[in-house]
Protein: Naringenin,2-oxoglutarate 3-dioxygenase-like
Amino acid sequence: MDAKVLSCGIRFSNLPESYVRPESERPRLSEVSECENVPVIDLACSDRSLTVQQIGDACKSYGFFQVINHGVCLEVVEKMLGVARDFFSLPVEEKLKLYSDDPSKTMRLSTSFNVKKEKVHNWRDYLRLHCYPLHKYVPEWPSNPPSFKEIVSVYCAEVRELGYRLQELISESLGLEKDSVKNTLGEQGQHMAVNFYPPCPQPDLTYGLPGHTDPNALTILLQDLQVAGLQVLKDGKWVAVKPHPNAFVINIGDQLQAVSNGRYKSVWHRAVVNADKERMSIASFLCPSDDAVISPPKPLTEDGTGAVYRDFTYAEYYKKFWSRNLDQEHCLELFKN
Structure:
């Protein structure tokens, strides 16, 4: 493979060797059933206490849920998906101007997960952007397609508002003041990964992304409605999450597992690929500020259990997360008391 990215206009008839997973690590797609009863939570519900309870139940039992009537304008969502498709349809030489395999860059096009370190690659390209504060990062974003900066800025701002609302509801569901979680996380950073999964000749030999948990606090995922690909680990089995119209999938990340003192679980999830169709997904990540000390609020440790994890800063966690392989044991295990 000469091109640095998969979205280079070539349709592969065989899976290149560097993408083939060892037998024991393959997705076994025929054994995956659809996830029954994925919690779908209506944020326009007038009974706040009901919403809080539904979110608490979902965070405890699933580690993820879908939200509808979420306040992010549907036209904004459509435009975001449109401009993401336009970006990945650009000529490969245009895209490669943005290519980098350095994870510390705040804007880059790349492929797989950590190309320089990993033994087996993942079948995806992605555009990674930092999104907060916007005035700081927008100037370095792609200027092609021409509408990219404007459309993505509006989307990022609306998704951030949704993230804050969800953190308030999550906070209340833990029996805390509504600002408690937000205050613990400090001035939150925001990143985005625009993921592109081209058609894959042998989907059962590889992943778009293998099983992992997210190192951040909260992930707000926009799924392609046409092509499912998200799978989560529920009760020890991988199950497929069918995209719900006009919904976002919300994932609890490692930081909320730590802040909730282990009550809420950071969900293991993975992306699988499709033989016939390309798939897009757009993940927005809210992350604690680097110097935020991740520690459960007092009420969550007062029942005699004590803190499950030692206090750490997000910067310390993130460094550890990127220095290992994506699918190793849970990074939080390294911070247990």
